[in-house]
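Recap for those who missed Tuesday's class. We walked through two folding examples back to back. For each one, the amino acid string is listed first and its predicted structure tokens come directly after. Nothing is annotated here on purpose, so try labeling regions yourself before you check the end of the notes.
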Amino acid sequence: MSHLDESMQGGGRPRPTLGNFLYSKTFRTFAAQIVMAVIVLMAGLFLYRNIIDNLNAQNIATGFGFLEQDAQFDIGETAIRYDASDSYARAFLVGLLNTLIVSAAGIVLATVLGFAVGFARVSSNWLLSKVATGYVEIVRNIPVILQVIFWAVVLRNLPNARNAMDFYGLVFLTNRGLSFTVPSANPVHEIMGLAFAAGIVLAIIGSYLARRHREKTGKYIDMLWPSLGLIFGLPALVWLAGGAPTALSIPVLKGFNFKGGATISPEFTALLVGIALYASGFIAEIVRAGLQATPRGQVEAARSIGLKPRFVMRYVVLPQALRVIVPPLTSQYVSLMKNSSIAVIVGYPDLVNIGNTVMNQTGQAVEAIAVMMLVYLTISIVTSTLMNFYNRLVAIKER
């Protein structure tokens, strides 16, 4: 019996052989990727070896051992304890946290502004729509670095502390920043924060269960007020159980600046406002495109059966609009975080600003830049992963 006859036994299908596998499209594709990966890896190793040899020839230290050395420089704004005797690694950590703080605040502000302006763009109110259009055209077409510099100049030309803009003795705006009243430190506040987080989780679970109930029975359960009750009611109950502390820390002018309360620096504010406004213009256009992507016939059909406007928006427009909005919105969030690196222009101590200082003091530019690149790469990947997960959650499931 020939080899072909043997291979055709058992259902008439040829048996897989080594020769067939080697010439298959799957193997060729996999082999090409392996070869390309090896080429890229070898090229990277060659460049790295070349850099190390050149640095050694100039008696410049290499490696990441410098991260354990004392930084010997102060940082103006820190989210954690830090002083000049701490290591360069901790200095990088401070810069990372500052970058995450301004990026998170920028994402929230840009999202709120972007969605508000995006809805205004499709409004039937002519004046509101034109104002929103003008806002989008202005903030999108001015480079983000100029917007950050503009707000920095505006804030630095505000009155000094002795001539501060006073808002009812509780908030003061000066060229040193925005000083405002906050509750005095109390252990119950930490528990309130946990209760707030728990309220959000319970509200999400409740909304999910209410949706499942509606899908099974057709009966709608309005979870708006119960959700608000959980989110704000639980912290209120903790506050009452903790003795309802009402002590406030009010900013008071002492010398050339305010003491007490909390202060947002002009550097942080300029960077935050600049990158958030710039991103909000793009987000507004993304939202407008998503809303207009919903077929008008479906909206009219929903209205014709008597659905309230908020139900039309929630159950007809938004589920379809989010499929268009979320993917480009992810890119805007990643871009906003990367734009925070221009903080060096206004003196805000973000990761890049601190990285430049470390680089100037140690002379180890390759390692410092590698750390910054790795951090931004990680942040971008994590952000994209979370947004892609959310995109899968809001995707319309075909049944």
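Example two. Treat it independently of the first, because the proteins are unrelated.
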Amino acid sequence: MNTDIILVRMLKLTAVFTIWLAVVSAAPADPILRKLDPTLRFQHERDSTGKYHLVDMWMTLSDLAEANRYSPVTDNVYHLFTRANPTVSQPMHTNSIGLLQASNYNNGRRTIVLIHGWRDSPISDSMVALIPAFLAAEDLNVFVVDWTAASDSINYPVVLSNAVESGRAIGHFINWLNEATGSSPVQYHIVGHGLGGHQAGIAARTVVGDVAYVTGLDPSMVGWINHSDRFSPNDGSYTEVIHTNCGVNGYISDLAQVDFYPNGGESMPGCDSHACDHARSYFYFAESITTGGFTGRQCVNYLAAVLQTCNVLPGTLQMGGLRPKYGSSGVYLVWTNAAPPFSLN
């Protein structure tokens, strides 16, 4: 081949390689894949223990790689509590038929599924409050979802992504449980706090059939404003949300068929921190299970509830409780005491 032709081709290849190198060098080392929130990129967010973390609300390629290391089907553990074992759980996984058969699960009972929040655990305050309240009120199967393999990370975009995957895995666990035992979606009440609040909705909509009752306890705000998987009114036959730290840790606007705003949804009596406000949602709900208290006054919309100006509509409704309130809808303002018993009625 002519030496001049070879030289020209080598020069062309060198030019192409130089351009490619320049493009690669100019590209970000960790490209942005998604902006999780329309507001500031870096925000302070509290976990369920009340601790602040500075979180990056832009999900990067490395975040995606970290999220992919979580496998909810194998990593999530489902701890069963019943009146026969109210303090020591019987753990199981999806498809663990041997553990299921050896457990105290009874397909003739209603089943409660409890989901903790960010950097919480199955022995967190929320679970300690709710498990005995449910078992004292009725003979139930109570499953506590342990998704700490994902929720313990301080990388919030990763945890948020994994919360969605965990919610779907919980729904698949319920589908497997129903197939294995003959149970029905109408026997279920799914309850979640914080990030677990949105998971409760995701799990319910993943279940084959309509889950009877879905409760969100102050579902998270950060990262969920424009999120297509956030808690939805149609996630179950009856859906309810209790807002106690709205606009900070909790979602500010209505999400369910029925939304309750105790004391306007923020600054709970007896609390001196946002963490305390956030926690009040499960303390109020636990009390509603055992006493049936908390009468809400109907509001025109959630802004009226936040501003505590609900004096137009005459309707009332009980907040929380054991049974779904089929056919109910709207926004309600509730007043509480500063200490237990929290209900004024």
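Answers for example two:
The radius of gyration is 24 Å.
Residues 15-27 have pLDDT under 50 and may be disordered.
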